[in-house]
Amino acid sequence: MSDPVSDHDLVPYWKAKSLEEMSPEEWERLCDGCGRCCLNKLEDWDTGEIAWTDVACRLLDGHACRCRQYETRHAVVPDCVGLTPEAVRSLTWLPPSCAYRLVAEGRDLYWWHHLVSGDRETVHQAGVSVRDRTVSEEGMELEDYEEHVVDWPGEDLDAQGAVDDDAAGWDEGDPSEKKYEKIP
Length: 184
Ligand code: SF4
Ligand code: SF4
Prior knowledge:
The chain is α+β, with helices and mostly antiparallel strands. The chain has helices at about 5-10, 15, 25-30, 85-90, 100-105, 115, 120-125, and strands at about 40-45, 50-55, 60, 65, 135, 180-184. Belongs to the UPF0260 family.
């Protein structure tokens, strides 16, 4: 007698499907809501090194970690990068915890992802999101961004999905000794 539930049905969609195979609704649900990708980044002129800042896009709600105007965001923030499977595979700055990056690399989601935990608060409880850790770019001069360089958005996580303070994502160095430009 055949089992009415196939193995394929038992495998969560983010493991069963590639990024390209996901429906638009599955794609949107894959976002963990961390808000890390909505922080401004600086690129070192000389080395190409990316430095994260805690300066958030003007449309980011710093507590909810959500875009305030997601559907029409490009009218306000033209350089907001729209993620596609191709972009996920080519962008070098996607945070190590980003669900799209994890799936693209053939890795599983962490316990705190809402698709695993069933709770959209766990990404915040695990300390992975940007909740209440950002300042808005509104009214800030570009030259002041260097004072806001931080390493936590690029931190790797340990095997349990906890923030690993010993594994910073880049050599931070002294920001004042570098020449940066803002990248989208
Ligand atoms: S870093 Fe990835 S998972 Fe987190 S908010 Fe951005 S797109 Fe979503
Ligand atoms: S416009 Fe883009 S970068 Fe800004 S908050 Fe919305 S999704 Fe994030």
